[in-house]
Amino acid sequence: MVVAAVLDAGTRLLLNYCGCCSCRRRRRRLLFLLFLLLLAGARHSRAAATATSCELHRKQSELNSFLWTIKRDPPSYFFGTIHVPYTRVWDFIPENSKEAFQQSHIVYFELDLTDPYTISALTSCQLLPQGKNLQDVLPRDIYRRLKRHLEYVKLMMSSWMTPDQRGKGLYADYLFNAIAGNWERKRPVWVMLMVNSLTEVDIKSRGVPVLDLYLAQEAERLRKQTGAVEKVEEQCHPLNGLNFSQVIFALNQTLLQQENLRAGSLQIPCTTEDLIKHYNCGDLNSIIFNHDTSQVPNFINATLPPHERITAQEIDSYFTRELIYKRNERMGKRVKDLLEEYPDKSFFFAFGAGHFMGNNTVIDVLKREGYEVDHTSAGEVINSGKNQKTVSALTSSSPEYPSYIISQEQHPPQQKEEEEEEEEELLPHLLLPESIDLLEKVDRKYKKKKKKQQKKQRLRQFNDLWHH
């Protein structure tokens, strides 16, 4: 509309110019300006067409598919998720993927997102050693910039929130504290990831479960058996393994990006919107999913000086190796163990989409072990297999990996007292439920469970003393 109005005004000016030297110069400048406007308009139209093209395809056969079938009887499935509100992608997930989920006996995730122990273990993993604060470990200028940026975010939080969020009773101060309230006790790498997630777009999406969490809630609602193929430490420790100079570089780059965004001099090259578009369009080759799966931003940038570009490449290689390749190998082997342990059960493995794409994927691990795994397109019929039986409880009876199975029947191990004090303070912001309601529910559930454990512990100690 704006371009059309300017073109209309420009045409009238061109028709009424007098022909003198100064008017000719003005006419040439105006013609050039009109050419640029037309070019911009054409680009905008093409971009709009590209952005909406996949949304026009609502037929089942044309939808994206992030489903793979593990050929056995009954069949099992791999399903690729992304870390965005499920409402943004649910309509583009084919019915056969949803049917595979419904028909499966047991649903497995990377982590058990509804288990209180997962929450408490993630909190502990993110914290600095006892008695240390961020101010003690960060260079002074970075600490000041970080503090200034978080003050800005806190100030803006209210204007970033949606009417829908306010309608659900969310307050800006509560939301800020839920995400960043304990930032001075966190390790720098987790603060970097926290800052990266404190953007207007991400804040607007809070309160709606991300796709993998939504599936976990649905599995719980349908009373399906659930489990996890990883321990919290296996996701958390690689992040803590980055060396100090690399962490400082990553935090500095993240702050620079946010400061430039605030100043209006930068546009994020790869946004959540891009991620959603790639997913909904069924882009199975995009490198974007690896960064969503590892939940680590990409620092490689052509504008960096050579020595900093090397650091960025080292960080990227480290995370690809530790958070994608090594985990794929471990997850693939545990999937194989589960399939062998429960041959008459149908599994639905919902992992980050990046674990199924590129090189050394979870699928590659299964194929090496002799399994046939095929990509399942949107139109294919789901075969339930001959062996459908009632869902039975999955226990931790397997001797090979008792520690990483987290089922609904199991209780978390006791934590040390000083860790428990820290865990009560705040829920971690990353690798965790985006649903505020669920966060509160899990927090209450955890505190209730801990009280019971403390009561049992007191009784046990009393009994010990009595017998002596």
Give me the secondary-structure category.
Answer: mainly alpha
Distance between the termini: 87 Å
Order of neighbouring strands in the sheet with most strands: 4-3-5-2-1-6
Order of SSEs, N→C? Answer: HHEEHEHHHHHHHHEHHHHHEHEHH
Instruction: Give the C-alpha Rg.
Output: 26 Å
Give the mean pLDDT.
74
Our count of helices gives: 19
**What's the total count of β strands?**
6
Task: Draw up the topology in text.
Layout: H1 2-15, H2 21-53, E1 67-70, E2 76-81, H3 95-103, E3 106-109, H4 116-126, H5 134-137, H6 140-160, H7 163-167, H8 172-180, H9 188-197, H10 200-205, H11 211-221, E4 225-228, H12 232-240, H13 244-263, H14 272-280, H15 288-294, H16 306-341, E5 347-352, H17 362-368, E6 373-375, H18 417-425, H19 436-467
Parallel strand pairs: 2-5, 3-4, 3-5
Antiparallel strand pairs: 1-2, 1-6
Helix pairs in contact: 1-2, 4-12, 4-18, 4-19, 6-8, 6-13, 9-13, 12-16, 16-17
